[in-house]
Here is the input.
Amino acid sequence: MSNQENNSIHDFDFSLICEYFSSIKRQGPGSEASTHEAITAIPNINSNFIIADIGCGTGSSAIQLAKETQASVVAIDLFHDFLNKVKLNAELAGVSHKVSTLQADMTQLSLEKESFDLIWSEGAIYNIGFKNGLQEWNSFIRKNGYIAVTDSTWLTDYRPAEIESFWLDAYPEIDTLDNNITKMEQAGYRMIKTAVLPNDCWTKNFYEPQENAQNVFLERHHDDFTANELVKNQRHEAELFAKYNSYYGYVWYIGQKI
Ligand code: SAH
Here is the structure.
């Protein structure tokens, strides 16, 4: 298969994925209450603050940051379609003057060194890996600046084989909270706070809105293999969460660059 064919298949997959996830408010588990709690953990976010929201999706956290603080927010994502939604949502929320967008790959960011006061990333750092992301992004944060990320985390030392193998396949770097704190400290941060996201961040705010979206999406793409696989995978993930949510969850890791 030629590269060109490969590219076109990937482009098609990506456009389907974007279409699916654009139809829901959040592209990962989270909530306004949980974002608010994380914002309040960071002292004195003032009008001089420049925040990067990396892997911002359609902008739920970027827009909340702009609404709740005096800071400017640069919303960064790989997908143009998501960023278009960020712009639209920022306008609707009346904060478009405080939110700019940047299409970039988080694994190859060419941002100016020490140019951000705060790096934010909800449900996205797994794309570069927790440890790697914390290390790479450190250079973009000014001294004594902050980082706040959520990542999936083992909540127990042992777990049933079914859920262990699912996550090791989906995200081999998933680790325990204690090990992640060590990784964060080794990457040059002082821990400020960790907090496990409540279950409704996954159920009410992420899996349940998908149920309706899945029906609409499948009506439109009922004979498309990739679309059917995408929905099958999302449904499987939701079933596993219902069964095994005591063993894993998303955790806030909030720290200050030393
Ligand atoms: N923060 C949002 C979206 C989380 S989903 C929310 O909580 O709703 C993960 C996001 O990471 C998606 O928007 C996806 O497009 C983005 N993403 C995935 N790989 C990326 C990469 N290599 N560079 C930048 N963004 C990426």
Notes: The pocket of S-adenosyl-L-homocysteine is lined by residues 26-28, 30, 55-57, 60-61, 77-79, 82, 105-107, 122-124, 127 (CB under 6 Å). The beta strands are 50-54, 72-77, 99-103, 116-121, 141-154, 175-176, 189-196, 248-257. Residues 1-6 have pLDDT under 50 and may be disordered. Residues 56 and 100 are 11 Å apart (CA to CA).
